[in-house]
Amino acid sequence: MKKIIACIDGSVYSHSVADHAGWAATRLPASIELLQVLGRREASSADLSGNIAADARQQLLGELAALDAERAKLLQRRGRLVLDEAKTRLLSNGIQDVTISLRNGDLLETLAEREPTADLIVIGKRGEAADFAKLHLGSNLERVIRASHKPILVASRAFKPITKAVIAFDGGASALKAVEYVSLSPLFVGIAIQLVSVGELNSETPRALDAALARLKGAGLATTSRVEAGVPDKVIPALVEKDGVELLIMGAYGHSRIRTLVIGSTTTEIIRASKTPVLLFR
């Protein structure tokens, strides 16, 4: 059976992450591991002793250590409650194969250990500290997308039944990977697929678009294609919203990390602007 890792953090996206994972688990089918990783910064406090006398410093450090220990216990209890709530939500929706994992450390390192056995990773668009920061993505999201070799489903704030999906197609390796995945996966059976190419076209784009269209139609999927002028990070989110599309599928980070630091990233901008879940491939 396939496996989904759903990253839960107690933010307002946690219910949506569980719901998106449940949707995918039903269609694949797959088991779900609900994972929460308590970051190292959450588990300990800063050293506030400063330049004070040795005896007073020793007493203060002892009190801080006791507070850290109590705080760690509270975070563990809260994390367990968040995971239990998500599991109960999935069980009530008929998803039976659900496990929970609560870990301390770094999310990226934990996912790297678990990723080889996973088929899909689900994560919220923003984390607990960025629930209402609409101009920013979650601090872990870009790191996870760049590091993962598995498809990543970025959950929107609320889940909606998925009947229509758009593949943002540029003819690149990650876009071709997305087309191949969609053509083979039971996740997309019965879902209307639209291939959309935006921006300047080179001589190979129409041929690649036609080949992708034929591949999807050959898999029995109801598929159409279109070409739009403009800038991808403006056109694609607007098109998705206008057409009532419930899922955007696209390749991730086609340029090097150094280049995106200088000129920005189309991937990041599209995720930020999109109000729908985004399925990403590297």
Task: Explain the overall architecture.
The protein is of the alpha/beta class and 282 residues long. The chain has ten helices and ten strands. A ten-stranded mixed sheet has the order 3-2-1-4-5-10-9-6-7-8, with helices on both faces. Strand 6 (164-168), helix 6 and strand 7 (192-198) form a beta-alpha-beta unit. Helix 1 crosses helix 3, helix 6 (173-184) packs parallel to helix 7 (205-218) and helix 8 (232-242) packs parallel to helix 10. 36% of the residues are buried.
Chain-wise SSE layout:
Layout lengths: L1 E6 L6 H14 L2 E9 L1 H4 L10 H39 L5 E7 L2 H8 L5 E5 L16 H7 L4 E4 L8 E5 L4 H12 L7 E7 L6 H14 L4 E6 L3 H11 L4 E5 L5 H7 L2 H8 L4 E4 L1
Parallel strand pairs: 1-2, 1-4, 2-3, 4-5, 6-7, 6-9, 7-8, 9-10
Antiparallel strand pairs: 5-10
Helix pairs in contact: 1-3, 6-7, 8-10
Descriptive labels:
10-stranded mixed beta sheet, 282 residues, single chain, alpha/beta
